[in-house]
Amino acid sequence: MYDMYAMKILTTHCFICIINLSLATKYIFIGFIGPMAKKYYCPRCKTKKVMEYPDSIECPDCLLEFDKKQIGVIPDDEILAFTEMGGFFDSFKELKDPEKAKKFFDSIMEDLEDEN
């Protein structure tokens, strides 16, 4: 009687160990390989041969780097590369000077008044 009871406990314990081992193996395997990667492409030349970084992709053909968050969300022809965004934002650096900012603002106000 005690032998049957010990066998049931041993069988249950082995079953739990096998389940734990298989789950641990699954998580280790997924950790090394990772989930299926998203397929990114270059919004300019449409090649799928891009280098993937944590937050961006780089196209070896175009030599441009793009933000991953924009791909598939913004139309491809409207996505700016990081270098293009830098050029756009750098043009506003001169507006840090209060005199230049006032001159720019005044010119916009003049244009608006001329339209009316």
How would you portray this structure in words?
- It is built from three helices and three strands.
- The protein is mainly α.
- A three-stranded antiparallel beta sheet has the order 1-2-3, with no helix packed on it.
- It is elongated and about 50 Å long.
- Residues about 30-35 have low confidence and may be disordered.
The H-and-E topology, N to C, reads as HEEEHH
What is the average of the pLDDT values? 74
State the shape.
elongated
Our count of helices gives: 3
Distance between the termini: 102 Å
Work out the strand percent. Answer: 5-15%
Keywords:
three-stranded antiparallel β-sheet, elongated, mainly alpha
At a glance:
The protein is mostly helical and 116 residues long.
Describe the secondary-structure layout.
Layout: H1 2-33, E1 51-52, E2 56-59, E3 64-67, H2 82-90, H3 98-115
